[in-house]
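Appendix B. Extra example for self-study. Work through it before the problem class; the solution is given directly after the inputs so you can check yourself.
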Amino acid sequence: MAQEEVQNGEPEKVAEVSFTALKPQLMVEAPKAADAVQFYKTAFGAVEAGRTVYPKRKAEQEQPHVLSAELELAGSTILVSDIADNSTPVKTEGTGCVLCLETEDVEAAIAKAVSAGGVAEGEVTEGDGACCGGRVGKVKDPYGYVWLICSPAKKCGDAEA
Amino acid sequence: MAQEEVQNGEPEKVAEVSFTALKPQLMVEAPKAADAVQFYKTAFGAVEAGRTVYPKRKAEQEQPHVLSAELELAGSTILVSDIADNSTPVKTEGTGCVLCLETEDVEAAIAKAVSAGGVAEGEVTEGDGACCGGRVGKVKDPYGYVWLICSPAKKCGDAEA
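Solution. Structure tokens for the complete assembly:
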């Protein structure tokens, strides 16, 4: 693999690059992005920082197509976007991205998300996996995304050491 | 939907919940998580903050199973985890989560990611969609995840206004 060739240093011909922000973008089947934004506000207390929509719809009664809604959540920013059936999907082929939310009160957070329309999956467990230790529960939101609700991460250590 | 019933206020019986961190967790087909971590370091300059692995492998020559590797990237934290074929997948059914990385130099960032083994998809475009304006390119990493490489977001506005 290419990265093997450069793992001991920067590739020589490639410029130094810095990144100013990382924002997970959740694609939602159109026109449900507006509903998803409302869910993330109610379930997790996300705060909407802005929204860009297509100005015109084919019919008056249609929901506007959300190009991107920006939500502040737990010190991070997430984007929520409608993706139309006929658009080229920006579809990941990865095994799956989940979103890990850390909180002091895992049970209360799950209860709140469930009361907003999420579905708790499995029991809250004590694990040392996903989030480097502590309590972990799982909620699937109405738009198909899985959220791990975790107690704050302990510093990851190498269990081999 | 349940959230309709509570959108004008907190549900009465549910505790106030606050979240301290949001960490996207990328599930990678085992045992490729270690390779993925190396790729994110080389391609994006991610810095590994810790790694938790299963202490024992079935065979000496096997790669350790990465429960969770924690990477600092663009002021955020991402987790990378091996997911075994026979485990219950924490699989999202969402239309797909992509990761939007903001940088001043979209072309250089894409070139660097490609030199590390990523695949550029399509051209860099000027859009007002995904990241609220500016230049956007797309790179698929060797583990199936799509990264949008975007110029820093302008403030999202409502295009209807």
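Self-check: The domain at 92-154 of chain A is CATH 3.30.720.110 (Signal recognition particle alu RNA binding heterodimer, srp9/1). If your reasoning did not lead you there, revisit section 3.
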